[in-house]
Backbone:
């Protein structure tokens, strides 16, 4: 058998594979450009609400600040938690301008320990969820707390439905104030016989699985129309920004941005723009979030000083 | 015994055929045994492979049961269902959402009371698992249900130390399962229980008694080599799995090859026989020819023998023999020619080239017989040169010899081809002439006498004239040959004498008056 052509073919393949061809690919060029731009970008990392809120106004922020903004969180495992946001804020440098997002209020000790500056953004209603087949539409805040505490274990205690209550909780950030602690202040106070989940998605799924389930999650969660769940009123009030403002809706959490103690001017400018900008408020309205800062009431520099 | 080469060649051919057929028969027999042994070996290997696969399948099913057992959501949901009293649908939805990919035939959750909490339609499975749990703690076992044979794996579920129940999942051992495992071999799988084939990839075997003797069993008149494949938790009441392969299938290929071997044996034997016959014929024909020619040579003949194209040693030998025969023939012809020359010289007069007296005695009986047969007249003309002694004396013997030779030439020219001329001695000649009448001899005699007289010979410019006297005698056809010759010569001599006495140079025919005259 004549092996000459085969050997020639092999050499040709090896040559084509390993020859240092010039980078004429458009993709490769784009990647190189992206890498370069990333070096000059402002990067935000943290709780999942960031990509809901900040993604919506990213273009506006980039225009206002004049810098590229990259937000880690959506479709990423890197920045979906408060701890990741705190870490990103702490690790910011002159050449790596990062900031974070947190979904819980931080204690003064933690702020001091981590050398952080907190930029409050909004109050987010904590939604009380039940299965859509559950006839209940409204519970008093005491009933909610009694259910989560385990004092009420059957829906028969609330309405005519004779189903056992399945409590679903997501008790994260246990050492920080706020969040679910507006329902019950301590995780030990919650009913022991409960389903404990680690994500908002799992919360929605568990509540959807049990017709007698009750759970909670933040208002920035985007529900699927197919999810067999519903949001009930508490004390007769819907979880809206207005009801938070007037104190009628009792369950909420505070969403904030954080930086280290030496934030770059552009990062401060970006966060201040988010706190006071028009675009951010529009998105907040969409998700029934209560902004914690008046619109354009002070300059970004003054806002930073005031926060300190 | 085998004294001839032909017999030996025939014996060798038969021996070769026997060797060929024996070798092929032995090869076939040995191949059959070897193939069967190899098939048994392969069967054992395949059985081990199948046992390994089934063990993997058993472990895989158990692993899936344990995976379900260890899933925290299952544990939580199970807790909610069994302890809180939440609806089972939640557990079903979870199972469907997260475990529907599991390759299981059916599943059932049992609570601590052994009651099915999900898939109540699988209550029989729950009962089977309950029954099994009372007898054994083995997490894998086989059972027979209304759906058929099933492999069952179970695992206990608890949550935060609280026992909740049991999850049981199954694989169905159906035709598809058999086909799936049968793909590893060319044989068949038999699921047997209580010595009866319950399920098989060989449908006709189902319901048949299954009692292997050693490693083989006969099903539908077909011998199967079988090997047991161990199953988890096997006991007398559980099914047993066997893997078998029919000897017919194993030997199918050999059978096809056996036909080829048989064809080869027949063809080889036939070809060997033909070759042997051809060789025998090629050897025999020239040998027979040589032997016949040798016999002919022994009898004195030298027959013709053609030359053959030399393709082998026999052809060369035949050609050399042919050349030898040709050489012998040539020598024989030389001898014959010499012999003829000797014979001719014995009956020929060297001076005149005419026949001599000896030939007269040889030829006369034939002529006489012809005379008698054809009732011709045989005349004997006795001639004598006149005064020959005087010529010899006057001119010498050489001239005398020339005169005799001249006389011979005259006689040859004057006689017919049917006439016989003899020199009887000295200057005396005899002519035997067959004629229709007695006058024929006289006419010939006058012609000779006249020719000789008119043709003298020349010697040193001198003409020497010669004459001859001729006496004619006739044969008596009533006598025998010898007596007739004697009588003829006597009568011719008497007539010659009379011609001499009458003055020579004349012809006289014998008559009775000359009977008592004295000869010359």
Residues:
């Amino acid at each position: 058998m004549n092996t000459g052509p085969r050997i020639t073919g092999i050499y040709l393949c090896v040559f084509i594979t390993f020859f240092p061809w010039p980078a004429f690919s458009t993709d490769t060029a784009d990647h190189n450009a992206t890498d370069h731009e990333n070096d000059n970008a402002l990067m935000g990392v943290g709780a999942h609400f960031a990509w809901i809120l900040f993604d919506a106004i990213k273009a506006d922020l980039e225009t206002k600040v004049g810098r590229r903004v990259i937000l880690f969180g959506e479709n990423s495992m890197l920045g979906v938690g408060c701890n990741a946001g705190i870490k990103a804020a702490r690790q910011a440098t002159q050449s790596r301008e990062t900031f974070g997002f947190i979904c819980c209020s931080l204690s003064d000790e933690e702020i001091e320990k981590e050398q952080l500056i907190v930029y409050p953004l909004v109050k987010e209603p904590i939604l009380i969820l039940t299965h859509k087949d559950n006839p209940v539409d409204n519970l008093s805040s005491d009933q909610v707390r009694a259910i989560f505490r385990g004092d009420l274990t059957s829906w028969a205690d609330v309405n005519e439905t004779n189903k056992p209550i399945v409590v679903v909780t997501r008790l994260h950030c246990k050492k920080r104030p706020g969040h679910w602690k507006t329902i019950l202040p301590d995780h030990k106070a919650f009913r022991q016989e409960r389903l404990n989940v680690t994500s908002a998605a799992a919360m929605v799924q568990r509540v959807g699985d049990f017709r007698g389930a009750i759970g909670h999650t933040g208002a920035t969660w985007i529900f699927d129309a197919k999810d067999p769940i519903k949001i009930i009123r508490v004390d007769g009030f819907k979880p809206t920004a207005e009801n938070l403002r007037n104190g009628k809706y009792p369950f909420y959490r505070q969403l904030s941005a954080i930086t280290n103690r030496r934030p770059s001017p552009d990062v401060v400018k970006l966060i201040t723009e988010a706190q006071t900008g028009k675009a951010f408020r529009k998105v907040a309205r969409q998700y029934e979030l209560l902004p914690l800062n008046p619109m354009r009431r002070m300059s970004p520099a003054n806002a930073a000083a005031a926060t300190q | 015994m085998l004294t001839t080469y032909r017999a030996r060649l025939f014996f060798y051919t038969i021996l070769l055929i026997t060797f060929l057929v024996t070798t092929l028969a032995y090869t076939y027999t040995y191949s059959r045994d070897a193939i069967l042994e190899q098939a048994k070996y392969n069967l054992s290997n395949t059985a081990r492979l199948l046992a390994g696969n089934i063990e993997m399948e058993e472990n895989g099913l158990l692993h899936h049961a344990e995976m379900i057992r260890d899933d925290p959501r299952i544990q939580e949901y199970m807790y909610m269902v069994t302890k809180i009293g939440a609806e089972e649908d939640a557990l079903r939805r979870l199972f469907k959402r997260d475990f529907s990919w599991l390759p299981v035939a059916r599943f059932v959750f049992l609570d601590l009371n052994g009651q099915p909490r999900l898939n109540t339609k699988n209550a029989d499975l729950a009962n089977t698992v309950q029954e099994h749990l009372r007898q054994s703690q083995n997490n894998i076992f086989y059972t027979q249900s209304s759906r058929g044979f099933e492999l069952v794996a179970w695992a206990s579920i608890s949550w935060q130390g609280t026992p909740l129940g049991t999850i049981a999942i199954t694989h169905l051992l159906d035709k598809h399962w058999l086909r799936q495992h049968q793909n590893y071999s060319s044989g068949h799988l038999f699921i047997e229980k209580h010595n009866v084939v319950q399920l098989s990839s060989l449908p006709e075997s189902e319901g048949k008694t299954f009692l292997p003797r050693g490693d083989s069993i006969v099903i539908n008149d077909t011998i199967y080599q079988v090997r047991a494949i161990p199953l988890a938790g096997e006991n007398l009441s559980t099914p047993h799995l066997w893997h078998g392969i029919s000897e017919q299938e194993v030997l199918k290929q050999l059978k096809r090859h056996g036909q080829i071997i048989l064809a080869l044996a027949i063809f080889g034997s036939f070809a060997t026989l033909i070759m042997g016959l051809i060789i025998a014929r090629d050897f025999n024909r020239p040998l027979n020819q040589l032997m016949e020619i040798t016999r002919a040579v022994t009898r004195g003949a030298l027959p013709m023998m053609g030359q053959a194209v030399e393709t082998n040693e026999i052809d060369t030998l035949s050609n050399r023999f042919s050349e030898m025969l040709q050489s012998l023939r040539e020598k024989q012809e030389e001898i014959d020619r010499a012999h003829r020359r000797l014979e001719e010289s014995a009956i020929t007069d060297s001076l005149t080239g005419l026949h001599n007296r000896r030939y007269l005695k040889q030829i006369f009986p034939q002529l006489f017989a012809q005379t008698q047969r054809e009732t011709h007249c045989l005349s004997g003309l006795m001639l004598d040169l006149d005064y020959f002694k005087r010529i010899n004396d006057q001119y010498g013997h050489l001239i005398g010899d020339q005169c005799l030779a001249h006389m011979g030439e005259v006689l040859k020219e004057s006689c017919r081809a049917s006439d016989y001329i003899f020199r009887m001695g000295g200057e005396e000649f005899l002519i035997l002439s067959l004629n229709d009448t007695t006058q024929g001899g006289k006419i010939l005699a006058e012609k000779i006498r006249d020719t000789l007289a008119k043709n003298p010979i020349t010697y040193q410019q001198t003409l020497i004239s010669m004459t001859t006297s001729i006496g004619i005698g006739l044969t008596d056809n009533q006598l025998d040959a010898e007596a007739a010759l004697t009588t003829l010569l006597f009568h011719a001599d008497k007539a010659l004498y009379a011609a001499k006495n009458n003055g020579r140079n004349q012809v006289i025919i014998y008559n009775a008056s000359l009977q008592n005259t004295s000869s010359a």
